[in-house]
Amino acid sequence: MTLQSMTLRITPLVSDGCMIQRDRPVAVWGTAEPGRTVNVTMRAAVATGTADATGTAIATVATESSGSTEPAVVSSHVTAGADGRWETTLPARPAGTRAEITVSDGETTTVVRDVLFGDVWLLAGQSNMELRLERVAGEAPRLLDDVDDDLIRCFDVPQTFDFEREHDDLDAGEWFSSSRERIADMSAVGWFFAQRLRADVGVPVGLVCTAVGGSLIETWMSRGRLAAMGALPDDFDRLTPAYVARQQRLFTEAAARWDEQADAADPGLGERWQEPDFDDTDWDVMRLTESGRVELRAPGVIWLRKRISVPERFAGLPAQLRFGTMRDADRVYLDGRLIGETYYQYPPRDYDIDALPQEFTLAIRLKVENPGGGFTPGKRHLIVVGDALKRDLVEPAAVNAAIEATDRAGAGERADEGAAGKAGETGRSGGVIDVDAMGAWRFRRSVWMPVKPGDEFFRMEPVGDYNAMIVPLRRLALTGVLWYQGESNCWHPRGYAELQMALVQDWRRLFGRPDLPFIYAQLPNYRLDDPSSWLYLRDEQRRALAVRHTAMVMTYDVGDDSDLHPLNKRPVGERMAVAAESLVYGGDGEPMGPVPCSVRSEPNRLVVRFTHVGDGLRACGALRFEVVNGAGLPRVATFDGRIAACDRIVVDLPQGTAPGRDASLRFLWEPSPKPCLTNSDGLLASPFSMPID
């Protein structure tokens, strides 16, 4: 918080529509003229005896007395310090209480309205926690049919960093509820988590989101903790404000020059290669699924064009182009008109078409900034038309089912009407057009360029987000933390468990909660880049369960092999809610699936013991285990396992085989493992690699 103005100010975390943690003292803080007395009054409402759909008491009527242990109106007086800061504490209130908080310094009075008491959860990590419902809803529009819930509220912490000092408070930010107007802005994982808790536990839920795309775990840790671990870079002190500002300016200027040079050298712009009447007959040809083509790999600009015909019944209907992700930046034109552009590789290319022509030319201008550009392997290239825009198509299986169903319908229609079918056509009043089934595109590289200047990407540097985005939250009372991070640490996975365990300890110290619940997502299935690094990172995440009062939810069945940002976030949020119900709310179920606790060698067999089995282990597929560096065996030898007790699996070895001193056992050790083992609650077992005792 800057102290240039000494007029009365309250932290943005206590503002209109805020959620305050129930059953814990209420912290209110801010700034005022040094030495001034600040009066803080909370007028709490009293439950009317009615309840909402989940059973939460609804408080609507403000009174002077309520019959509770605390009066309906409480006040506190505090004097602003020499630096202008003030802070006070008000009594705790139960879930469902509504209140107003009035703050006055004698000259200025501010009223914080629509305060609600419930359970506040901190959402942290990187882009998969940050990913908004808006992106998910484009693929699954029915998700937003019933979203108006005033008892789910969110606060997005402004994204900033500071390497030199810990911030006392936030400079900005606002609370908002899950109304139809704002729901798209919420973290998708957070929303599904809160929605499940509202249904099962019946308390209001507040979400404070601090996630930042691309951030390393070290960015969320304190300087002191990292230094004590020997994990603070030797050149960390270079990160002064002047250095950061200079490097950001230099990058911005260099990147702008690169873009200007690429555009100036591109004949496609001057000759308007996007126009439908442009002659591309002498261009080369390729399919969009040929992601490994060498012509796409080097930096520069590539143009692609295709003439597309769709069934007459689709003409004039609203549609959306869904072309997955591309590296690195693109513009897409329909008959010469720009329908969408994206400036970096990760967002899906979902571009709206107001009225789909029956025949048209699609043109793509793809700008490759680094080696390895092109189209993402494994992605489908589709046009979703009419009524199909209202269907849930998050999962690849849903797309396949839609194509197969409408292909059958189209075949029936062609037989009835004698119409000549076109490749990829589907549906009647709407469908999914498979553009990949329509064959090759014309393409031409128009510009060769050097690699685009790289950003120093300060989100990858230690401490910065902790200082500016976590420390200012330290006065908040919390129910727990949800953590989804690890993708950015995959390039150096060794030691991640120690970092995560230290982060949990760091935050528990900061928030004054030695038992603060910490629930996190293990990385999902993924096959791009170097997927082997994900295997080791997942195992590091498993090892971090050594810290008590933590839980890890497995997600290797709900990711996307070809997308770093899978859209199927509902299972992730709901599994985190299941973990919370067990870990925090006294539920009878397990917080997570089976986790190995030991691998013991016995004559001619190995015995693996698990925790979190519930009423017992359940096999849902072949139980394949890998012995690594076993004596007298191949370096990696595969054997079947069998459930031998409620918490044990036996892996039978060939007669006379001993695993050896340096041997280890691996399970589900692949980028996209097939689920094969659960507990009695149906929660997936964790992948692992463990030494054999």
TrEMBL record:
Coiled coil: none annotated. This is Sialate O-acetylesterase domain-containing protein. It comes from Bifidobacterium amazonense. The keyword Hydrolase applies. It comes from the Bacteria. Keywords: Hydrolase. Pfam families: SASA. Residues 119-224, 468-577 form the Sialate O-acetylesterase domain. InterPro entries: Galactose-bd-like_sf, SASA, SGNH_hydro_sf, SIAE. SUPFAM superfamilies: Galactose-binding domain-like, SGNH hydrolase. Transmembrane segments: none annotated.
